[in-house]
Amino acid sequence: MLAPATQDPPLLLREDRDGIARLTLNRPEARNALSVALMATLSEELARIEADPAVKVVVLAANGPAFCAGHDLKEVRADPGRATMERLFRQCSDLMLQITRLPRPVIAEVHAMATAAGCQLVATCDLAVAAESARFATPGVNIGLFCSTPMVALTRAVGAKAAMHMLLTGEPVDAATAHALGLVNRVVPADRLRAAVDALAGTIAAKSPHVLAIGKEAFYRQREMPLAEAYAYASKVMTRNMMAADAAEGIGAFVEKRPPVWKGC
User: Fold this and answer.
1) What CA–CA distance (Å, rounded) separates 58 from 44?
2) Would you call 126 exposed, middle or buried from its count of C-beta atoms within 10 A (0-12, 13-18, 19+)?
3) How many angstroms separate the CA atoms of 248 and 98, rounded?
4) Is the pLDDT of residue 6 over 80?
5) Taking 70 as the threshold, does the pLDDT of residue 101 lie above it?
6) Distances (CA, A) of 12 to 44, 216, 218, 238, 240
7) Across the strands, what pairs with 21?
8) What is the pLDDT averaged over residues 213-238?
9) pTM over 0.70
10) Per residue in 180-206, pLDDT tens?
11) If 123 and its partner were Cys, which of 73, 79, 115, 153 is the partner (CB 3.0–4.6 Å)?
């Protein structure tokens, strides 16, 4: 008699509570390497979240001994043709852009090593909280593959000299150094990581989701503009924001010394 087929565990886990969607990378045996399937699954879940008005904040976490080891090199080696590589890096770039464009704040919860595209993933998230045990690296140069796509996110998160040192040497930096460089917002003991992230996510989830969406979009758009253009754009955004019902409610609540009741518009 044949033994019943075992079902593979899901590549990504989702848990929703109090307006916070927790997405957990779940390829621990592969150190959560970003396979084509995992990237597709994460992208699909982010699309569901964008369509779900109940979600106000996203937390991106991971199971196993690493946060994310970058691209799946076994998968890469199995089909190294140009067309396949173009599809792979386009898929990864599209995923990173999707995170940036998602009208919800995304917080990386980094418990361990994040390398190459895994480091890129951390740098792409709007905020990041790391355990003291976390490490970060762009080590592609060690295997003859400069981390060019991770470089895009890394250079927008840390200074040029620090980014170049990581990219040229491939050497990992510890959590305290990552915090000093601006790659992560906060470093906490490993046993307090989940609580710290939950507290941060809860603080943000209490804000107007409409205003958070306006602010996140404006942040990334103005950052790429010349100074005068950025001010002109931000002034238009502030005016549009002031016309929103949540702005009137927030100002009224402040003046009347009461908690605001967001209308979501």
Assistant:
1) 14
2) buried
3) 30
4) no
5) yes
6) 11, 25, 29, 37, 37
7) 16, 58
8) 96
9) yes
10) 999 999 999 999 999 999 999 999 999
11) 153
pLDDT of residue 1: 45
Summarize pLDDT for 163-175 with one digit per residue, the tens.
999 999 999 999 9
pLDDT band of residue 80 (cuts 50, 70, 90) is confident
Q: Tokens at residue 65, please?
A: 């001994």
Say which CATH superfamily domain 209-256 falls into: Lyase 2-enoyl-coa Hydratase, Chain  A, domain 2 (1.10.12.10)
CATH of domain 12-205: 3.90.226.10
Contact between 32 and 68 under an 8 Å Cβ cutoff? The reply is yes
Identical fold for domains 12-205 and 209-256, yes or no, is no
Structure tokens at 51: 């369509």
